[in-house]
Specification:
Rossmann fold, 2 domains, 6-stranded parallel beta sheet, 41% helix, globular
Length: 369
Amino acid sequence: MRKLRVGIDGRAFTSPAAGVRRYVSELTRAMVASGEPVELVALGGRPDAVPSGIGHVVEFWHPPTNLGWTVVGLPRAAARARVDLIHAPAYTAPLWAPVPTVLTIHDVSYERRPEWYPYRRDVLRRSFYRRSARAASHLLTDSEFSRGEIAAAYGIPQDRITVAPLGVSGNFSPDESGSPPDLPVGVAAPFLLHVGDLHERRNLGVVVEALVALRRRADRRAPPSLVLAGVDRGVGDAISAMAEAGGVAVVRLGSVGDQVLRRLYRDATALVYPSRYEGFGLPLLEAMASGTSVVASRAASIPEVVGESGLLLDPDDPHAWAEAIAGVMEDPALRARLSAAGLARAAQFTWAKTARITMDVYRRVVNAR
């Protein structure tokens, strides 16, 4: 079998989106480790951010914007690198290129629910995302939910879209060996954890409402604090104000490193994930792999990831969230059951599997030329 030379958009390795960084880094590492006949080359981006075993081509001249890079710089780098195929790992791809392009679209919330993105420039972004999707030779996505959403949003036949579920790093486990870092200042057990950007679609108000309801019950002890690990996208102050008015403790950590994140998963009573829209929901998988109970919405792709291994709830029912949180707080047997089920479920999702599916798409696209 002929070795493929694949160019990966190197800027993805330093994307401001933590999920994109995780995706491209873990996927390429898994491909290198697989022994498959593929040579990976990072096109542009910072060479120090590229994993071992992957080549690098410097950026050539392009207009000094991300759009200029994608439209001009990336195709030029691909031509100079003489790759067989370009893989654009996050939403945008060249509108023309000397070789076929595979584009990964993780979700289309910005297209399906534009009211969550009320910024003027998002109209232009949505237009470029749409054109990128239609120009690509083939699309990859993370879930069957997203596959259907992409097809509906862009009018793309589903046979041009392949689902490659994400994996979970072996760094996320119940193992507490080594020297784990201390919990961040202000965080103390018991606490509930949410991981991910603080955004309107994440629907965090329902958890605060549930905790306020628990606090008001005379027969309940004080509710746990809510720890938020993720960049604030404009809703953090409202969440904090709502919690303060109800006498509930919320700790906003912002973005945290992997070592701290692993400690948070292991020490949390549960991961709470009330999101209304997810293309996959990688924190769900990381929490389950850490042995942490999961309480999440029965919405979008979340049931695909969690299966029967967590408590799935109506995202608009604070009473149900209050009961579920009380259950995991007060019932050790329930926590143990959810932990065991989550560990078994997470074991089904590996980056090696993601890499195999992705490599198959590469071959089909190149062979179809």
